[in-house]
Write a sequence for this structure.
């Protein structure tokens, strides 16, 4: 049941991840975010980076997670295709794998500016079924 | 939008009465057709803006308003610091000082037609556009701080452009009150290789021609005649602005309770103007405005360089440079009283009426030029701030067509390659690093910009001066 999807917003784009745990939903949301820009299935897990973020609640943590990915894409010149997320008491530690940006080969579509709090939601909507979503500004 | 929930004040002015927690009414400027097409979220969001502390007179939405985050895109609101007024990161947006600059070229359409493909290729080569593109300017820490303080004035001193360019930029190219020390290291790092880049999404550089003149007198004062070639550059403060927006949005959400602010929506995150967080944001936001002004100045330099290679007879001079996503301190008369207000414009353009001393002296008698962006295949407009528009949304106007369709839908409906061929058939050369990006930005995904501009004119916000039609579009 782990998967991701996009959902529409007038000017921007919604990203949504599903998983059996909160961490899995966050991992799937990374793929949704990457898929706005490139096809993550075509990326190779060549490089690994680590991310840490913390926040007062799950929703702010999710926005922080996406914003950290956006920041590292821009400053490390990487597109990401996989993540292993661990969340413990408002602390998120993750390992991300991806590939150095090659504009000609990847033909990236659009830059993501930041994660907004519009429609921001992190919820266990059924036992063992988590959803994490928000709109990102493109 | 459900029109029955609004009270019609005139053909293009619709009121949401102040009820519940609203401190002031909300006013939407649009004709019936645009209102009916508008998302209900615009009503919800502009109603929420009207609840914020210290808001003065009303919360306003422009004819191109659409669902944003916190504020609608096309939202305008002014706050009084002396009455507990706030500054809102969500009320400015992530792309701080995103805006449009128009350059006159001294060329006629026929001059460019002969070398259009070559010019398009060279512009695409010279202007870094799209995701992952980097500029050739790599600033040291000290240079970055000087850029954040000096804006386009800094850029001109570095050799990017000419001193006379500055007269045609809001704030003469340098926003005062910028505080580089309030800009995080992360934001500066994100900007390090992005100076002089266009960005992606709806950002573009277009070569256009004046297809129609609506007001000969003002067009002549602006230096516009039918058939003239214009270059328009649409972009903003790049990664630095995005990072500042991101960081302060969170800080303001976290601090709301401390300031006893009840947020109807987290995205309306704000802080009192007179608080340390409010002042910190204002310093960082003004630095981002300078970053955007410097960025458009560098892109102007690259554009001139490109033109000189193909059309050496061209002389590119600024018509004007406007910013869309800002909070600026302005003096406005409210109910007969002069007040200093913090005017937020998110996806809205400042549109001062004639006589305002912020307008360059040679244009002052005609109203501020307002540059309305297009969507690759349609058209753009040059407007002039309408007389007596101060009483309507603090002298503000729309900023573009606004999306009518999500990227998601657009991607399914169009293919980039077909679209580029179709537009080439209509005489518009598109250059872009991404075919999917072109599809998502299809002209058909946008509202009818002419309807938006006409509604703004009837509403008395800004008057039409000239229509610009694209010949070349470099899309990020």
């Amino acid at each position: 049941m782990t998967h991701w999807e996009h959902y529409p917003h007038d000017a921007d784009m919604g990203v949504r991840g599903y998983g059996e745990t909160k961490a899995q939903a966050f991992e799937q949301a990374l793929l949704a975010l990457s898929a706005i820009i490139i096809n993550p299935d075509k990326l190779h897990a060549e490089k690994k980076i680590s991310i840490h973020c913390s926040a007062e609640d799950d929703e702010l943590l999710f926005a922080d997670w996406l914003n950290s990915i956006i920041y590292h894409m821009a400053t490390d010149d990487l597109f990401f295709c996989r993540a292993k997320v661990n969340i413990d008491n408002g602390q998120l530690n993750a390992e991300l794998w991806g590939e150095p940006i090659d504009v000609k080969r990847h033909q990236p579509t659009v830059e993501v500016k930041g994660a907004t709090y519009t429609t921001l939601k992190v919820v266990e909507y059924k036992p063992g079924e988590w959803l994490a979503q928000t709109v990102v500004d493109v | 939008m459900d029109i029955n929930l609004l009270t019609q004040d005139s053909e293009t002015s619709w009121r949401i009465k102040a009820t519940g927690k609203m401190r002031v009414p909300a006013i939407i400027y649009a004709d019936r057709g645009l209102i009916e097409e508008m998302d209900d979220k615009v009503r919800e969001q502009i109603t929420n803006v009207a609840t914020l502390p210290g808001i003065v007179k009303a919360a306003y939405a422009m004819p191109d308003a659409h669902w944003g985050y916190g504020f609608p895109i096309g939202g305008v609101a002014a706050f009084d610091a002396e009455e507990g007024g706030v500054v809102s990161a969500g009320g400015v947006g992530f792309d701080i000082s995103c805006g449009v600059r128009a350059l006159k070229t001294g060329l006629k359409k026929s001059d460019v037609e002969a070398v259009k493909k070559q010019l398009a290729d060279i512009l695409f080569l010279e202007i870094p556009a799209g995701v992952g593109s980097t500029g050739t300017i790599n600033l040291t820490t000290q240079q970055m701080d000087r850029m954040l303080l000096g804006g386009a004035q800094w850029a001109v001193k570095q050799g990017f452009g000419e001193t006379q360019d500055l007269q045609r930029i809001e704030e003469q190219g340098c926003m005062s009150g910028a505080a580089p020390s309030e800009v995080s290291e992360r934001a500066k790092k994100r900007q390090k290789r992005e100076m002089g880049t266009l960005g992606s999404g709806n950002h573009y550089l277009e070569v256009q021609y004046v297809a129609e003149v609506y007001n000969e007198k003002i067009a002549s004062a602006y230096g516009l005649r039918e058939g003239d070639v214009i270059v328009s550059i649409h972009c903003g403060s790049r990664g630095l602005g995005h990072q500042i927006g991101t960081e302060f949005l969170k800080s303001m959400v976290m601090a709301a309770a401390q300031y006893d602010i009840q947020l109807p929506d987290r995205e309306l995150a704000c802080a009192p103007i007179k608080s340390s967080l409010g002042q910190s944001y204002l310093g960082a936001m003004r630095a981002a405005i300078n970053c955007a002004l410097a960025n458009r100045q560098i892109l102007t330099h690259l554009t001139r360089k490109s033109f000189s290679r193909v059309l050496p007879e061209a002389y590119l001079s600024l018509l004007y440079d406007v910013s869309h996503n800002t909070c600026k301190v302005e003096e406005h008369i409210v109910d007969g009283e002069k007040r200093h207000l913090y005017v937020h414009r998110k996806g809205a353009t400042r549109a001062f009426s004639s006589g305002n001393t912020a307008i360059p002296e040679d244009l002052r008698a005609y109203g501020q030029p307002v540059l309305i962006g297009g969507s690759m295949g349609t058209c753009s407009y040059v407007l002039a701030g309408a007389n007596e528009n101060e009483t309507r949304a603090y002298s503000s106007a729309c900023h573009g067509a606004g999306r009518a369709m999500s990227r998601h839908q657009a991607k399914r409906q169009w293919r980039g390659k077909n679209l580029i061929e179709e537009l080439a058939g209509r005489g518009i050369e598109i250059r872009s690093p991404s075919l999917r990006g072109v599809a998502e930005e299809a002209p058909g995904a946008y509202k009818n910009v002419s309807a938006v501009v006409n509604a703004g004119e009837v509403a008395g916000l800004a008057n039409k001066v000239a229509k610009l039609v694209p010949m070349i579009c470099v899309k990020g």
Observations:
- Residues 3-404+446-475 of chain B form a domain with the tRNA-splicing ligase RtcB fold (CATH 3.90.1860.10).
- The first strand of chain B starts at residue 7 and ends at 10.
- The mean pLDDT of chain B is 95.
- Residues 119 and 310 of chain B are 6 Å apart (CA to CA).
